[in-house]
Amino acid sequence: MNKMKCVVKSEPKEGAILTTREIPQIGPNEILVKVLATSICGTDYHIYSWDAWSQKRIKPPLIMGHEFAGEVIKVGEKVSKVKIGDIVSAETHIVCGKCELCATGKAHICKDTLILGVDTQGTFAEYVAIPEDNAWVNDPSIPPEYLCIQEPLGNAVHTVLSGDIIGKTIAVVGCGPIGIMAVAVAKAVGAAKVIAIEVNEYRINLAKEVGADVVINPIKEDVIKRVLDETDGMGVDVVAEMSGNSTAIQQALKYIKLGGRMAMLGIPTEDVKLDVANGIVFKGVQIHGIVGRRMYETWHQVKGLLASGNLKLDKIVTHKLPLEDFEKGMELMKSGNCGKVVLFPNMK
Ligand SMILES: [Zn+2]
Ligand SMILES: [Zn+2]
Question: From ligand 1's centre to the CA of 257, what distance in Å?
Fold first, then answer.
């Protein structure tokens, strides 16, 4: 047995194939993990659909996927932190560990970052090799379908907790899977009012189920007026911008409170025109770009939130499929009618 099944982006065009590859070899500082569950990220869908970003970044053939939980079955000779039998997930940013940013607690913005399943062979497979430094040892009593979503959950946690949130009003703009998680996190940590803004009805309902106090569909109503009505005319303290949509960003600067904080995770595909004078400067608004997870502060926060049992993970994970059905998973991602979609390489 030295072959494994996996999902490979084999050619520079739309789609991917289910095939077999050699089980990866590990270096002295790496571990080999048997993948138990691996979830589909928006990034995976971009690679699958072969969008403009993927065409520039991805060099096929590539085993896709990066969000996972699995069992360590082999460790390199220099590995000391992780043991065989540990259930691990991974910080997916493989950083240099040497630059100024890495040396000053900002490794999440290391300029030499490689991303698992983007720049290296990924996790839509029975086995994956990762550096020991990137392994996060899990509580094995938590089901793998929840452990595998910690990486995107970390994005949501990093966004919501990048400033004060307890007792604050927050608008989560865009309720894709990470937006849904941001709603759940904001609620769990004690935001005063969580307003979810989303156009897809399935995801509007999901936002309600994980605890949104107010949901607004900007296609159906005046989002600026409604947010102001919900906040005594003051606007929200915090905007978690998860949509990357230019109109949504422009609107958010109109309903954010004076002195508010806008944490931006969504990635616009083109330049966005903003009223910097009235939307940011005169309002004293703080804008914070969010990339990845703080290493490893965010992971500890995620661990604590999982342990709290307050995140409604059963609502966040909406679909579980065998790896063989990855195309069905990609269709769900395309439709928007899903939360997290989790794939199982060996579904029983
Ligand atoms: Zn991801
Ligand atoms: Zn670095």
Answer: 30
